[in-house]
Amino acid sequence: MKIPHVLTVAGSDSGAGAGIQADLKACAARGVYCSTVITAVTAQNTVGVQGVNIVPEDFVAEQLKSVLSDMHVDVVKTGMLPTIGIVKVLHHSLKEFPVQALVVDPVMVSTSGDVLAGPSILAAFREELLPMADIVTPNLKEASALLGGLQLETVSDMCTAAKLIHDMGPRNVLVKGGDLPSSLDAVDIFFDGDDFYELRSSRIKTRNTHGTGCTLASCIAAELAKGSQILSAVKAAKHYIETALDYSKDIAIGNGFQGPFDHLLKLKSNIRNSFRKQAFNPANLFLYAVTDSGMNKKWGRSITEAVKAAIEGGATIVQLREKDAETRDFLEAAKACVEICHSHGVPLLINDRIDVALACDADGVHVGQSDIPARVVRTLLGPEKIIGVSCKTPEQAEKAWIDGADYIGCGGVYPTNTKANNITVGLDGLKTVCLASKLPVVAIGGINASNARTVMEIGVPNLKGVAVVSALFDRECVLTETQKLHGDLTQAAAMVK
Ligand SMILES: Nc1ncnc2c1ncn2[C@@H]1O[C@H](COP(=O)(O)OP(=O)(O)O)[C@@H](O)[C@H]1O
Ligand SMILES: Cc1ncc(COP(=O)(O)O)c(N)n1
Ligand SMILES: [Mg+2]
């Protein structure tokens, strides 16, 4: 399988906000393979550039040959090209190994004001590289330098510059206005030789803008490699910059005035979630209340009234299992239950309906063997949420563990009216599954005040509690029944210890 491939020819930034490091991260974030030809190694941080060590042009040529003679590169993107010799070497390589598109970011001065490629480079840019480029992406200072010091202060000046640079031969020009002093928005001008496009995004208030230029150019290259048209590639890249800046506006890396931003925001948001993740507490399975709309209707109670009574009676986790409710009514009830549960520190799960769980920000979901697989539920809900799976066999328990579930429900232990045609596993089946399971287990199916102790007294360590439906909700007083069951379970737990 061929995958989209960008080759970046640029300098290394030890602080990893710009240069090669930004290019690698931007391409990774956009799902594109990125190879790297390094033209210079900079000693650089959030304060500025402390040193530059230029790679000899022969060795730049050697790197280019290694990559281009072996790999299929779709798009070449250039950043810091510190010498005329390196520009010439690149020009030569691109003649020998033509690619689908060339994106030129004419890096000259870092935002910290340090020179990365001197003015002597300008002639080589104009003569060798720009005529080959599909797009060139100067910032205000670079556009001005390319045009012999022309003053650029307004959006209209940027249009003039785009047109003049277009005359040097590139097919498209993007003049970037990140540094436009008077502008509330971040405005860039795109010119394709016929039309001007004013591309605006909100200007994010942050110190973390080091590397925006490199990232923008890499992202354009990545989108081109995936087959986008140039204008949509530029728009996608600009949108990505805006999102990444917004996401990273408060991160603190380094003590200087310009910090790097965070390219891999999607990935990081998962990692951050996993830092935040409170490990599921198996003790919550102790008295697990599962609602049933039919029963509550029969006794003239709303779901919320039933849940409140169960919690006050000592339920340690609640699952809403509303098979017949209209979705919108269910969601409203679920939102109210989330509030009640959270005010008591009790987790609330939703049976089967991942959409409802997401919409009401429930603590998790319980799924059966014929529902969406737990592995998919985990992807949809992220690492923070609780996932339970109904299992009858050790194999199903093993699979639930592999899929990233937090607990399993095992049953039916006894015959029950709440599930038609449900195979009963009995106490023996329960014990077998508990002994095999790597996850904590809650027993379910026909459990009530008269048999709960017997269930708990099978005495296997990872049986953490019982789940009940009718024993709480098919009764006149949910509060009393829950209190009674809680008392029995507490006694049984004391016996087992
Ligand atoms: N604070 C900001 N908020 C939103 N977008 C920005 C901000 N600063 C720069 N950009 C955008 O980042 C991209 C790079 O622009 P610029 O900073 O001008 O280039 P360079 O990094 O080469 O100096 C442009 O699309 C610009 O509009
Ligand atoms: C190696 C290298 N390449 C490019 C830039 C420009 O990035 P910025 O203009 O965001 O400082 C940089 N600072 N370092
Ligand atoms: Mg910048």
UniProtKB/TrEMBL annotation:
A Gene Ontology term for the protein's cellular component: chloroplast
Domain of life, per lineage: Eukaryota
Record domain Pyridoxamine kinase/Phosphomethylpyrimidine kinase: where: 13-256
Chloroplast listed as a keyword: yes
Required co-factors: Mg(2+)
InterPro entries (UniProt xref): Aldolase_TIM, HMP/HMP-P_kinase_dom, PM/HMP-P_kinase-1, Ribokinase-like, ThiamineP_synth_sf, ThiamineP_synth_TenI, TMP_synthase
Pathway: Cofactor biosynthesis; thiamine diphosphate biosynthesis; 4-amino-2-methyl-5-diphosphomethylpyrimidine from 5-amino-1-(5-phospho-D-ribosyl)imidazole: step 2/3; Cofactor biosynthesis; thiamine diphosphate biosynthesis; thiamine phosphate from 4-amino-2-methyl-5-diphosphomethylpyrimidine and 4-methyl-5-(2-phosphoethyl)-thiazole: step 1/1
Catalytic activity, reaction form: 2-[(2R,5Z)-2-carboxy-4-methylthiazol-5(2H)-ylidene]ethyl phosphate + 4-amino-2-methyl-5-(diphosphooxymethyl)pyrimidine + 2 H(+) = thiamine phosphate + CO2 + diphosphate; 4-amino-5-hydroxymethyl-2-methylpyrimidine + ATP = 4-amino-2-methyl-5-(phosphooxymethyl)pyrimidine + ADP + H(+); 4-methyl-5-(2-phosphooxyethyl)-thiazole + 4-amino-2-methyl-5-(diphosphooxymethyl)pyrimidine + H(+) = thiamine phosphate + diphosphate; 2-(2-carboxy-4-methylthiazol-5-yl)ethyl phosphate + 4-amino-2-methyl-5-(diphosphooxymethyl)pyrimidine + 2 H(+) = thiamine phosphate + CO2 + diphosphate
Subcellular compartments: Plastid, Chloroplast
MF terms (GO), sorted A to Z: ATP binding; hydroxymethylpyrimidine kinase activity; metal ion binding; phosphomethylpyrimidine kinase activity; thiamine-phosphate diphosphorylase activity
UniProtKB keywords: ATP-binding, Chloroplast, Kinase, Magnesium, Metal-binding, Multifunctional enzyme, Nucleotide-binding, Plastid, Thiamine biosynthesis, Transferase, Transit peptide
SUPFAM superfamilies: Ribokinase-like, Thiamin phosphate synthase
Ranges of residues in domain Thiamine phosphate synthase/TenI: 287-472
Database matches in Gene3D superfamilies: 3.40.1190.20, Aldolase class I
ATP-binding keyword on record: yes
GO biological process, one term: thiamine diphosphate biosynthetic process
Protein family according to the UniProt entry: Belongs to the thiamine-phosphate synthase family.
Function: Essential for thiamine biosynthesis. Bifunctional enzyme that catalyzes the phosphorylation of hydroxymethylpyrimidine phosphate (HMP-P) to HMP-PP and condenses 4-methyl-5-(beta-hydroxyethyl)thiazole monophosphate (THZ-P) and 2-methyl-4-amino-5-hydroxymethyl pyrimidine pyrophosphate (HMP-PP) to form thiamine monophosphate (TMP).
UniProt cross-references to NCBIfam families, sorted A to Z: HMP-P_kinase, thiE
Protein name: Uncharacterized protein
